[in-house]
Specification:
Layout lengths: L6 E5 L4 H12 L3 E6 L2 H15 L3 E5 L5 H15 L4 E4 L14 H29 L2 E6 L3 H4 L5 H21 L4 E8 L5 H4 L3 H9 L9 H11 L11 E4 L6
Helix pairs in contact: 1-2, 1-9, 3-4, 4-6
């Protein structure tokens, strides 16, 4: 990791992929802001990071779809740690339904959290990053945003939007040494995917060349790479982490 850049924000970090990312970054010596709407769980994660890895860590309750919350998240990070060097936009939800049955509320909730939330947090963080002329933003997209998924018109649309947003931000922020990339996970074992019907799980595994589901740690490893000096000439890229599901 960079010697002079040590402060990371991870949204949706109370559980699942976000928690694994927070743990990986703390293990590598970064101070981590654990952002989540689930504040009690976020505080537990922050305490674990401090105790286990000896880094600075705080929890910030954040509704990423609210501009005020996004701004407070970044301001708190700067106030507590001095800078925001890395932003991992992981917060996301699903509200699956066939398009002909999908309610406006189901559509709005997923787009507001997954896409608008990624935009708002990136907007707030990029202002600080441009001042410092350094920053790394990693957005969690999905193979659904590339392939489309039946029953997930809202989710797939939000993740396709995240990919387009990633590319646009990369073009805008590159001149200030801010790299913006996305990861498109495939079928990752989390609390969210555990709720899928067994037939759906079997279908995914049958179509994954590696014949296994991914883990949150698989995603955390790629995040670690993208914010490291080894990836300093990579921006505007979407990395497919799906075990070959998307080839």
């Amino acid at each position: 990791m960079y010697e002079d850049h040590k402060n990371a924000v991870v949204t949706g970090a109370a559980r699942g992929i976000g928690k694994a990312i927070a743990q990986k970054l703390a293990k590598e010596g970064l101070n981590v802001v654990v952002s989540d709407i689930l504040f009690d769980d976020a505080k537990k994660v922050a305490n674990e990071l401090k105790e286990k890895f000896g880094v600075k860590s705080i929890a910030v309750k954040t509704d990423v779809s609210c501009a005020e919350d996004a701004n407070v998240l970044i301001k708190t990070t700067v106030d507590e740690f001095g800078s925001v060097d890395f932003l991992i936009n992981n917060a996301g939800v699903t509200r699956d339904n066939l398009a002909v049955r999908m309610s406006e509320q189901e559509w709005d909730m997923v787009l507001n959290i997954n896409l608008k939330g990624t935009f708002l947090c990136s907007q707030a963080a990029s202002i600080e990053m441009m001042k410092k002329r350094f920053g790394r933003i990693v957005n969690l997209a999905s193979v659904s945003g590339i392939l489309g998924t039946a029953g997930q018109a809202n989710y797939a649309s939000s993740k396709a939007g995240v990919i387009a947003l990633t590319k646009s931000l990369a073009r805008e922020l590159g001149k200030r040494n801010v790299c913006v990339n996305a990861i498109a996970p495939g079928f990752i074992l989390t609390e969210m995917t555990e709720k899928l019907p067994d037939k759906a799980k079997e279908y995914y595994i049958a179509n994954i060349p590696l014949k296994r589901v991914g883990t949150p740690e698989d995603i955390a490893e790629v995040v670690s790479f993208l914010i490291s000096p080894a990836a300093s000439y990579i921006t505007g890229t979407v990395i497919n982490v799906s075990g070959g599901l998307l080839i």
